[in-house]
Amino acid sequence: MSYSIQQVFRKFKNSYLEKNTLSSEQSSVFNSILNCRTEVLGTRIYKCEECGKTVFAYDSCKNRHCPNCQDYKKEVWIQNHKSEILNIPYFHVVTTVPAELHVIFYHNKKKMYNLLFKAASESMMELCEDEKHLGVKVGITAMLHTWSQKGNYHPHIHMIVTGGGLDKLGKFKKSKEGYLIPVKVLSRKFRGKLLSLIKEEELEFYNEYEYLKDKKELNKYLKPLYEKEWVCYSKSPFNNVGETYEYLGRYAFRVCMSNERIVKMDETHVWFTYKDHKDRNNKKVMKVLGEEFIRRFLLHALPKSFMKVRYYGILAGKGKKEKIKLLQRLTKTVNNTIEKLSKLELLNKIVGRDVTKCSECNGEMHLIRQIISSKLRTI
Asked: Full-prediction pTM beyond 0.85?
C-alpha cells in the first residue's frame, strides 16, 4: 500500500492544529498540499472518443514544498540548463552549520538564509581566486536545504562548483584532477565569515532566547563556535558531464520528505525511511507521531518569494548566455543545444505514457468540460 504526505496531513490535521499555530508560510504550504489535485483547485474532464471512458483530472497546487508538484518543475529546469554544461569536472561541496546556530536561523529565516548563501559562496569564490589554490574565478550553482534525513531542522548549502575557471588573463584553467580546495580551509573560512556576518546583522529573538537581542549576550553565545570544527565536505567529481544537471535538478527540487519514503501509517503514527549517515548511509525506518511528522515537515516552509537556487562567479549576472558560449569555446565543449520538449512532451516523459491517449483502448482523449473556481465551463 502506498502513502502520501497529503494523506498524513488529512489524517492528523485536526490534532496538529489543536496544539499548534501556523505561520503565514506554513499555512500556505499546509493548505496547498491538502488541496493539491483535488476538485478544490479546478477540474478538467476528458472523454475517450473510442470507448467513452471519462477521466477527471484535478489541478495541482504548484507549491514548491509539495512533493506532487516537483517533477514537472525539475524537468523544465534541467531542460533549460542542460545546454550550459561545460566539458570539465564539477564538484559537489556542502557547507553546514553547528546545531547551536539553528535557533538563530529559525527565528530569522530570511535574513539567515541570505547570510548562509553569502558566507558559503564568498568563501568558495575567495579561496578559488587565491593563487595558493586555483587562482581562478569559478562558477557556482548553490542550493539551500534545511532538513536532515530525519526531517529535523538542519540548514545547509549545496554548491555545484566548476572544476576550474577564468584566470586574470581571461584564460580557462582547470583544477587538478579530483581536487578543488582543502575542505578544512573552506570550513574555517566559512565559519569566520558567517559568524562575523551574524554579529553585524539586526536579528530577532523570542521567548527564552530574547536575551540574545543584547549584542554582548549574542557575542558570548557565538564565541565557543569559533573553536568548534564545522562540517564541510566535497564529493568527488561527477563521472560524466551529462549527469551533472540531472543530479542538480534532483537537488534543486527536492523537498524534505517524498511520498515514497512513507512506508506505514496507523491511527497515531507514521513510519518513514531515512539514510543513516552515521552508519554508512544504511537505510532505516523511523516511527513518529502523526503530529510530529507534520511539525517536522512544516519546519522547512521557506519565506515567501525566497530564491533557494542561486548562481555565482562566472555563472552569475547579466549576459549569461554570452558567457556560457565563451566558456564553451575555452573548454572545447561541443555545443549542447538541445531541442526543448513541449509541456505535453514533458508530461508524457514524467507519466511514462502518452497522456492524450486512453489508458484502456489507446483512443484519443478530448477535453469536454472544465471547472474553474466552482464554475462549470463547457468546452
From this structure: yes
